C-alpha cells in the first residue's frame, strides 16, 4: 500500500503541471501551481513514512530503541506548506495588480509586458 502515496503524489504533480501549461488565466495558473505543490507534501510524507512506527514524541524519558517516523521529513513538509501559502498569496496579489493595470488576466493578451 506504500506505492499508493507515490502514485497520488505523481498524479497531483502531473495534473497541476498540466493545468499550468493549459491555463488561459493567471488565477487558474496559480491554483494549478498549488495543486502541483500539494503533490510535494504527499511525496515528502510518503518518503518519511514507516509502517507501524510511532510518532517521534518522547515524554520526558530517553528515546526508545524502536523505529519511529522521521521528524525531519515532517518538518520539511510543514515548511513546504508555509512556503506554498506564501507563494500562492504573492502570485494572487500580483495577478490582482496585473488585472488592475491591464484589465485582463489572460497571459496572451498581456502584450505590453513583453520585452
Give a structural overview.
- By secondary structure, the chain is mostly helical.
- The protein has one domain (2-51, 69-113): Helix Hairpins (Orthogonal Bundle).
- It has three helices and no strands.
- The protein is elongated and about 65 Å long.
What's the architecture, going by CATH? Orthogonal Bundle
Tally of individual domains: 1
CATH topology: Helix Hairpins
Supply Rg.
20 Å
Based on secondary structure, the structural category is mainly alpha
Order of helices and strands: HHH
What top-tier CATH class fits best?
Answer: Mainly Alpha
Helix content: 55-70%
Mean pLDDT: 87
Q: DSSP helix count?
A: 3
Q: Using the alpha-carbon principal axes, give the shape.
A: elongated
List keywords for this structure.
elongated; 66% helix; Helix Hairpins; mainly alpha
Q: What secondary-structure arrangement, pairings included, does this model have?
A:
Blueprint: H1 2-22, H2 26-48, H3 71-102
Helix pairs in contact: 1-2, 2-3
Amino acid at each position: 500500500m506504500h506505492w499508493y502515496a507515490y502514485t497520488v503524489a505523481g498524479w497531483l504533480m502531473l495534473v497541476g503541471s498540466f493545468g499550468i501549461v493549459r491555463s488561459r488565466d493567471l488565477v487558474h495558473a496559480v491554483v494549478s501551481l498549488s495543486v502541483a505543490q500539494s503533490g510535494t507534501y504527499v511525496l515528502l510524507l510518503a518518503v518519511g513514512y514507516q509502517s507501524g512506527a510511532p510518532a517521534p514524541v518522547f515524554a520526558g524519558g530517553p528515546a526508545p530503541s524502536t523505529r519511529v517516523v522521521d521528524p525531519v521529513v515532517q518538518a520539511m513538509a510543514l515548511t513546504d506548506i508555509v512556503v506554498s501559502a506564501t507563494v500562492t498569496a504573492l502570485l494572487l496579489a500580483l495577478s490582482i495588480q496585473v488585472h488592475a493595470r491591464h484589465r485582463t488576466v489572460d497571459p496572451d493578451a498581456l502584450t505590453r509586458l513583453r520585452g
